[in-house]
Amino acid sequence: MEKKLMKGNEALAEAAIRCGCKCFFGYPITPQTELSEYMAKRMNASGGVFLQAESEIAAINMVLGAASTGVRAMTSSSSPGISLKSEGISYIAGSDLPCVIINVQRGGPGLGGIQPSQADYWQATKGLGHGDFHVLVFAPSSVQEVVDMVSYAFDMADKYRMPAMLLSDGLLGQMMEPVVFPEQKSEAIEKPWAANGHKNERKHNIINSLYIEATDLENTVVERYKKYDEIKATLPDAETYMTDDAEYIITAYGATARVCKSAVNLARAEGIKAGLIRPKTLWPFPSEIIKNATENAKAILCVEMSTGQMVDDVKLAVECKKNVEFFGRTGGVIPTPAEVLAQIKKLGGIE
Amino acid sequence: MTSEILFAGFGGQGILFSGKAFAYCGLIADKEVSWLPSYGPEMRGGAANCSVCISDEPIGSPLITTPDYLVAMNIPSFDKFIGTVKPGGKAFIDSTMVDEKCERTDIDCYYVPASQLASEHNLSANVILMGKLIKETGLFTFDEIRKGLEKCIPASKAHLIDKNIEAMKIGYDYE
Fold first, then answer.
1. With an 8 Å Cβ cutoff, are B39 and A170 in contact?
2. Structural domain total, chain A
3. What is the pTM of this model?
4. Residue A318 in 3-state DSSP?
5. First CA to last CA distance, chain A
C-alpha cells in the first residue's frame, strides 16, 4: 500500500473519516486547526456532516446529540478548548454514549502557549469533567499510530459505550511522517440503545444523565464501574524498548517517548543499560506492564512535557518500591535527547 | 545513518516546500523521514523554519537542534542557526540575502546568490539552494528529486516540475 506523507492532524482526520466517523463538530484552535480544516474539505464529500460550531461548548453538545442517535461522532480541540468541553464530556459519560475526542495539547494553564505540551495528563486521566467517571485515553507517538489509534478508539468507545480521547500534542499534530491507511472498515456495530426513531416497532429509548433518586444514580455509577474494571483488566497497553537488561528505565508517552527513545540509543552507545516503557493507554494505565518490566531496574526516570503528572501513576505502578525520578520541560519546550541522556547519567551517578 | 536538515528563512521563501520536497525524496528512496515546521503566528515575511530528518532508522525526535545541513535564506536565520550546525556539517547560504560570512572553521559553508540567480532566471531561490545541497551532500539523485517534486506539486501545477528541476540544476552547477 502506498505510503503518504501527512501531518498528524490531517492523517487523524482522514483516518476518522475512513473508519466511519459521520459527524464532526469543531472550533478552530492552534495547533489543532488542520484537523478541522481537513474535515471541512473532506467530510461532506464522504457523506458525513462537518459543522463549525459557535464555540467548543456547542461542539461537544452537538457530539452528545449525534452520538445519541448511534452515529460515530467526533470533536477536536487543543487544551483550553478541552477545558470548555469538559461539562459536555461528563454528560456524555453519564449518558453512556460513545464518541471520540481529540486533544492536540498545547502549553497551559490559561491560554498558555501554542507549542507542544503534555500538561493535560491529569485532566485527561483523572478529571475530564465532574462526577465519577473515566474516559479511555490513548496516547499515540507517531503519525502512523495516530491513524491506527483513531479507529481503535472508535471501536473501543462503541464497545464500552463511553467517550474515548486521543491525547496528541502540537508536535505530533504538526509533523509529517509517512503513513499507510488500513483498508476501510464498514462493520456496523449494533446500537439497540440509540435514540434514532422507534417507528412504533419497539419501546422508545431515552438518553439521559439525570437521576433524581440517589440510589438509582448510585446503582448506575456502580454498574459503570464494573465496566471500568473489565477495561482495566483487558485494555492497558504499553511498548517496551530494551527493557530486558535495563538498569535505568525511562517512562514516557506520546512525542516525549520519541525523544526518550533517542536518548536510550545514545545511552546504549555509551554502554549504559537504559530502556524505555511507553504507555499507549493512559487510562487504563499499564501499571502491570510497568511493574513487571522494571522488576530488575535500579531506577526509573519519568519524562514528560509537564512539571510531572504521569510520574505519580508510575510510582503507584511500582508500589513505591523503586526510586522514581522526574525530568520535564514545560510551557511548550520540547526536551532534547541530550538533556534526557544527562538525566539518565545523573540517575545512575555516571560520568 | 541520519541526515538532519534545517531550512530557515522568511515565510514566503518556500522554506516549508523545500523541506516537504526533500522529505518526499527520502520517502521515495525508502528511508524513514519526518518533517516538522516551526508554527505559530507565522506569516509571509515572518521567520519560518522546518526540520527534516532522513534516516535508515526509525526517527526519534523530529525536532532538530544540531543540524547536519543548514539552509539559511535570511540574516536572522543565519545568525540564529549557524552556531548550531554539527561540526563537520555544511551550511548553504543565500548570499543575496545574507552579506555576513561564517567565522566557524569546523563546518563547510557554501555561499550561493540564490535570490539573484532566481530573479535572473525567473525561478525560485529555495530550489536553487536545494540543488547546491544535493551536489555537496549527494543526498539524492536527480531522478529521486523529480519523483519527490511530482509528489508535492499538485497536478494542476505540473508544468512547474521542469522549472524546479531547472532551478535545481542552476544551484547544482554553481561554483
1. yes
2. 2
3. 0.95
4. coil
5. 47
